[in-house]
Amino acid sequence: MFDNVGRIIAAGVSLGIYVLLALGYASLTDGHTNTFWYSLLVLGAFGLLFVIVNAIGTSVAWWLHSKHRIVGEMIEMLRKNSFPMREYATDNFANYLARLEGNTGYPVELRKVVDQIEKSRLMAEEAGMLNGFRYERAWDAAFEEYAPKAQAAKHSPT
User: Fold this and answer.
1) What was the pLDDT predicted at 87?
2) What is the pLDDT of residue 68?
3) Under a CB-based contact definition with an 8 Å cutoff, are residues 18 and 43 in contact?
4) Are the beta carbons of 111 and 124 closer than 8 angstroms?
5) What pLDDT shows up at residue 1?
6) Which residues does residue 18 pair with via DSSP β-bridges, in sequence order?
7) How far apart are CA 110 and CA 102, in angstroms?
8) Are 93 and 138 spatial neighbours (Cβ–Cβ below 8 Å)?
9) Rounded to an integer, what distance in angstroms lies between the CA atom of residue 59 and that of residue 138?
10) Euclidean distance between CA atoms 53 and 107, whole angstroms
């Protein structure tokens, strides 16, 4: 399900590069073991800093630009494929898709699109928790705009 092997390889390569850089720095300076460990610690801290800065930057870009564009594309996909309106006001997008997927009364083509959406949601989740969360919230926003709760035929399935 998750590509942990790829993540482990990437982390190992990064650590290897940090170790080589720290060894190079230690050998160019005084050659002491303490210098190696301090330089490795500093490289790790800078690496963490860059990860944090990148996460902040992508989050700001998401909220300022990407979310609006993605939600618009999702709404267009729902319209283009003639998705039915929300039946129950209490349904979120995941419940809505499950109802469509399990109902043989809907056209096969629509259910194929539902399956593709489910696969894309899983891929977003596997890409990382933050990506999965953003993608899920985007689908919820698109669904609410496409089929508002206030216009649902029924309040609850029970």
Assistant:
1) 87
2) 93
3) yes
4) no
5) 45
6) none
7) 12
8) no
9) 13
10) 46
Question: pTM for this one?
Answer: 0.71
Give the separation between CA 139 and CA 128, rounded to whole angstroms. Answer: 17
Over the chain (158 residues), what is each successive 10-residue block's mean pLDDT? 72 91 91 91 94 91 91 95 91 90 89 93 86 91 92 73
The tokens for 66 are: 């990407």
Query: What is the SS3 assignment for the chain?
Result: CCCHHHHHHHHHHHHHHHHHHHHHHHHHCCCCHHHHHHHHHHHHHHHHHHHHHHHHHHHHHHHHHHHHHHHHHHHHHHHHCCCCCCCECCCCHHHHHHHHHHCCCCCHHHHHHHHHHHHHHHHHHHCCHHHHHHHHHHHHHHHHHHCCHHHCCECCCC
Record the tokens describing residue 16, joined without a space: 């290897």
Q: Which two tokens stand for residue 150?
A: 């206030």
Residue 154: phi and psi, rounded to 5, are: -130, 155
